[in-house]
Design goal:
The chain is built from 3 helices and 19 strands. With 231 residues, the chain is mainly beta.
């Protein structure tokens, strides 16, 4: 009897572990896909433990690709609907999963939060480019670095470049632009505002990649004229 009691107990504990998991589905991030994510638990509206993400074709239940994340950071503060044992997520306030065309090939790529390691505790992300050869999303280290080391990453669809912005304190700001050249990411423009000297001037540095070589121009401007609203 003890043997059978132990087996039943283990089964019950295993079942309890399964039902203890929390499962959410991002429903409005893409017209082609849904993204399901499972956690052991979430603290209020923030999920920042390890998680498994499942890529599903829209309104389907069978995963077509799985992503194991040792850490993530989802902020689930938007619209939620309990349905079929899962929690469906809608709206911009549910943050941590997104689709965007990083390499301008007309196919949206996938971003999944890997924590909050961006400057000032911002949400950082792994970026997975869609591979036409394999039909899978493949992690891209260069784009992951951009999404993890900058405060913002914006995609200019019209001019086909990626623009990043970061800062340090009140007085140092940097904007950089990247484009794809032969399927490789290339930085071609950097603009820096530096007022860390503590004086009356801000140093403006513009760097441009021209003909394979960097050209730099530097000028000094009165802080009061450059930042009139701050004085």
């Amino acid at each position: 009897m003890n043997k059978y009691f132990l087996i039943i107990l283990l089964l019950l504990l295993g079942t309890a572990g399964v039902f203890a998991q929390e499962t959410y589905i991002f429903k409005d991030r893409s017209k082609l896909y849904d993204v399901k994510v499972s956690f052991e638990k979430c603290e209020k509206e923030v999920c920042n433990e390890k998680a498994t993400f499942y890529l599903l074709k829209k309104n389907q239940s069978r995963p077509i690709q799985t992503f194991e994340m040792g850490e993530t950071y989802l902020r689930l503060a938007g619209k939620k609907i309990e349905k079929n044992g899962f929690t469906e997520l809608y709206g911009r306030d549910n943050i941590g999963v997104f689709f965007a065309d990083y390499n301008f090939d007309g196919i949206a790529d996938l971003g999944i939060s890997n924590g909050n390691y961006a400057p000032y505790g911002g949400i950082s992300s792994d970026v997975f480019l869609f591979s036409k050869a394999t039909g899978k999303f493949v992690k891209n280290e260069e784009l992951t670095a951009l999404e993890s080391e900058n405060m913002t990453v914006d995609i200019n669809k019209k001019l086909k470049y990626i623009e990043t912005f970061t800062k340090s304190g009140c007085c140092w700001h940097e904007k950089a632009r990247y484009r794809y050249v032969k399927n490789r990411l290339q930085k071609f423009y950097v603009f820096t505002e530096d007022a860390t000297g503590g004086g009356k001037f801000v140093e403006l540095t513009t760097e441009k990649l021209v003909g394979g070589k960097w050209r730099r121009t530097i000028k000094r401007v009165s802080i009061k004229k450059y930042f009139p609203n701050d004085f």
